[in-house]
Description:
Chain A is mainly α. Chain A has helices spanning 7-27, 33-54, 63-80, 84-106, 111-130, 158-180, 183-193, 195-201, 205-231, 241-254, 259-281, 283-286, 290-296, 299-313, 317-325, 342-345; strands spanning 143-144, 233-234. Chain A contains 16 helices and 2 strands. Classes of the chains: A mainly alpha, B alpha/beta.
Amino acid sequence: MSIRRPSLGVGTGAAVLVLLLLLPPLVGNTQLSLPTEIFLFAVFALTYDVLFGFTGLISFGHALFVGFGGYSIAVAMTGHGVAFWPALFIVLVTGLVVSTVTGVVALRTHGVYFAMVTLAFAQAAFTLAQSNIGNQTNGENGLTVSGAPNWLVGPTSQTHFYYVALAVLVCSFLLLRVFVHSPVGRVWQAIRENEQRSLMLGYRPFVYKLLAYVISGTLATLVGALDALFVGAVSTNLFTADVTIQLLLMVIIGGAGSLWGAMLGAALVRALDRYLNDLAGAGWVTNLPNWLHNTIGQPLLIFGVIYLLLIYFFPQGIAGLVQRRFPGASPVPQPGLGEVEGDALSARTEEIMPVDASSTPVIRS
Amino acid sequence: MPKLKQKGCWMVRVTATTPILEIRDLTFGFGGNLVTDHVSMSVDRGEFVSIIGPNGAGKTTFFNVVTGVYQPSGGTITYRGKDITGINAAQRARAGIARSFQLANLFPTLSVLEHARLAAQAQGSRRYGLLRPYTAYRRYLDRAQSALELVGLGARVHGPAGALSHGDKRKLELAMVIAADPEILLLDEPTSGVSAEDVPAMVALIRKIRQVEGKTVMMVEHKMSVVLDLSDRIAVLHGGKLLAIDLPEKIQQNETVQAAYLGQDSI
């Protein structure tokens, strides 16, 4: 049983980490906001990958956790003057509660219905924050986040925040790596491939999916709070489906079912977003003839084209590409792209099993 | 067949052994059609019961109700003296009722070894382990490896299951059942799709599981040679009803059965 991780991967990872540790003195404080943002989004992408890439759950409402983390810490610290560490503890608890409650409800459904229910939860949170419920969220204007320790925020602390975000990313990666290689993590992947069969082997898919959902949601809530501290403010935009879709893109571009792929996807999407926006505002672009200006000056248009090309040429993401070039590296599964069983299509009525046994019509005699 | 005489079911009944599986009036239907129609049978520990019947007789549905895929609308299933009618499929699997599927029902991108390992892990206490790598639990890996070697897939454990040939997928189904180390094996057409030269080896393997390891086996099968070769008793389903359940030679002489099933195609 060759389960040894490729030394190539570990070596590359270590080299990248050393480079990132040396980056602040090399580039200077002013250049650190993009990498810090990337680190935080990389954790969001990791948590989304646990759901989508490993367990096969397509959530449209992951933004719920991003926003909830941000609002929790803003309301606690700005609104009620709670100190930093207790506030972080409150975020942890709310993250656990919110992910468990929404998970128990949403995971009663499957497939596209699960996506819709999670979206509904995120939209509900958006509406609640928008309507300034209990006079806590300040409606459309959002909240500023104040009261964080000086070493973490403020003009001279970019380097500190950079290292904190990096440390959080490395810890999250290592923790989730332990989880996905555990017995539970292997069952997640079995559920992604064939939930009904995992049930017939003796696993209860609901419990395993809830575990994935709570782990993913709680970590995303914590990092949502960190992101709010980094930005210094929260707004209702955090709850929108745009946030979730961006995470989905990161995971697909990076390679669903690969943790380092998700991180790479996050880096690529955030960096592209930043550079394409810079490009749109650059002087030489605005001086171009109208038709060129209107195309190059549209970040989303260019991103869309790049995204299409990436998906066309690397359907399994960057991680899948690396896997093909270096077959020794850890294999990248393809959620939803698995080989269609030819004989499964010719199933006779007698053998068709419902996705959910409770949906079976049962005659009472 | 001296083996049958020895283990003749009437002997067992006289000695009042509690059956390992007792099914009473089991009923299940899809929207008005009873696909399992008041079926009753009892299976003794160590017994080999084959279930035959024409296509659409409800054989696989019967397995689905017994294993908990479907909730019956009536009747009871008693396993080792306990009523298991109300417990779910996962609990039944962990209680020792394992089944294989007639159609390849696998995890396409997971490795062959992982399939058998997951089957073994499901029976273990560490199936909720989150902090140690799955490779730390050698016993699941070892059991998976030996189950795969038993069915003849020992040399190709690392490839994805989706890439296996149809016949090899059938062997993998059997290996997963073996790795789970159950009390009862429910095999749904284990030899369908297996190449003709591999069938004797499969039959020998199923016989070995039953004789050496003392497992109880229920098998749905179309190949009558395989059924007659392995079975202590044969149950005949037709239109969801149990037509007869008896010794193989009695079933062959049974006129109702011949009319309903055996008459259609020569054995």
